[in-house]
Write a structure and sequence with these properties.
Layout lengths: L6 H4 L12 E2 L5 H9 L4 E12 L8 E4 L5 E2 L3 H10 L5 E7 L2 H5 L2 H4 L9 E9 L11 H8 L6 E7 L11 H14 L6 E6 H4 L3 H8 L5 E5 L8 H11 L4 E4 L2 H6 L10 H18 L5
Parallel strand pairs: 1-2, 2-4, 2-5, 5-6, 6-7, 7-8, 8-9, 9-10
Antiparallel strand pairs: 2-3
Helix pairs in contact: 2-3, 7-9
Length: 291
């Protein structure tokens, strides 16, 4: 049985509203990590993992480093995990976004140190090609899932490769069905799964997002690039439709400030439908019968 730390419980600011959780993006340098760990505010620290060399290191072999694009960094994954684990009274969570297959397999011994962490840990990778995407995943889905499935106490984050954030891109039924099949076939050990979806595409894919989460305890992690074109109204409607207790908003501050979530409920669509049917049933049964 999974004992993953639930962000809704860990982050006092959330109060069953996952959109209230604040994310620090691309924490890929020693300074960024130190600065964010020193902050008193609650944060999810999102960082990227790929293979490369530590700056000024004489080691010939590549190691897992914290980087999105560069092949060098002054912060290795080993450094990152050690620093986070050594922080007393930490009120931060961690999301590691793996950018290539080798970074997954070469990180196994380091990830062992996070399996029983007293804070939320997300392990993320794009494992499927999105229907509108040009690129295949840089991370092999079978390798990723077989490697991370042993970490029962983490939150698994799964995504698709996407386009460059244009408004007309969307998630299709095939995207959703393909991901659900992978999850089912993989017999994962994690009880908590979140699906990482790009804001520009998710905002115009309401039906697909609802089907992705249907009859599960899974969540969405909605993310955006700084230059993405997003329909703020449709994204606001999506969050309200799904429920704020089911949606993380890992988006830019500019986009988040434009969203209208007034009146958004933590009650999901499925729950409201059930309650609505129950109310109608009780009402009809309570009506006096003629004759």
């Amino acid at each position: 049985m999974s004992n993953a730390v639930d962000p809704k419980v860990f982050f006092t600011s959330a109060k069953d509203n996952l959109t209230q959780i604040v994310w620090a993006h691309a924490v890929n340098s020693a300074k960024d990590l130190a600065d964010n760990l020193a902050k008193k505010t609650e944060l999810m620290l999102e960082a990227d993992v790929k293979m490369g060399k530590k700056t000024d290191s004489n080691t010939a072999d590549d190691v897992p480093i914290m980087s999105h694009d560069n092949k060098t960094s002054d912060l290795t994954l080993q450094d990152f995990v050690d620093k986070v684990n050594q922080t007393s009274g930490i009120n931060k969570g961690v999301k590691l976004d793996f950018k290539e297959t080798d970074a997954v397999t070469k990180s196994k011994d380091i990830l062992d140190k996070l399996n029983n962490a007293p804070f939320p840990v997300f392990l993320n990778a794009d494992i499927l090609k999105g229907s509108a995407a040009d690129k295949e995943p840089a991370v092999n889905k079978d390798t990723f899932l077989n490697t991370v499935k042993v970490y029962k106490n983490v939150i698994l984050s799964l995504g698709w490769t996407t386009t460059d954030g244009k408004k007309d891109a969307n998630y299709t039924d095939e995207d959703v069905n393909g991901m659900l099949k992978v999850v089912k076939d993989s017999q994962l050990n994690q009880s908590m799964i979140t699906y990482a979806v790009r804001a520009s595409a998710a905002s115009v894919s309401h039906k697909q997002m609802e089907n992705l989460l249907k009859n599960t305890d899974s969540t969405l992690t909605v993310w955006s690039g700084k230059n993405d074109t997003v329909d703020e109204q449709k994204l606001s409607e999506l969050v309200k439709h799904i429920g704020v207790n089911k949606v993380y908003l890992d988006v830019t501050d500019e986009l988040k400030n434009k969203l209208d979530l007034n009146g958004a409920s933590g009650m999901t669509v499925a729950t409201m439908t059930i309650l609505g049917s129950l109310f109608v049933s009780l009402f009809l049964n309570g009506m006096p019968r003629s004759g």
